[in-house]
Fold:
Amino acid sequence: MEIEFSSRVLTWPRAGGPLRRHPVLAYFLLALGFSWAGWIPFALARAGRFPTTVPAEVAWLAEFGPTIAALLLTGLESGWTGVGRLLRRCGKAG
Structure:
C-alpha cells in the first residue's frame, strides 16, 4: 500500500510491525496520547503548576484525540480511499 503526500510516497509495511499486529492497542494508545497531550498541560496551567497559560482551545482540540487516532490508523491501513469510506460511513450514521 502506498500513501502519497505531495511528491513523496510513504509505504506501510505489509507484514509485522506493532501497529499491524495490535491495531486496537495502537488505537487506544494514540487516542489517549493525543487527548492527554492537550489535557495535561491545560489542567496544570489552570492549577497554576505550569509556567505559562494554555489556551482553552487546546483542551477543546484534545477532545478529538480518538478521531485523530482513527483517521491516522485508517489512513495508514487503507490510504485516502479508506479515510474517505470511513468519513462517508460516519456521515450516513448521523
User: Anything to note?
Assistant: Residues 41 and 47 are 10 Å apart (CA to CA).
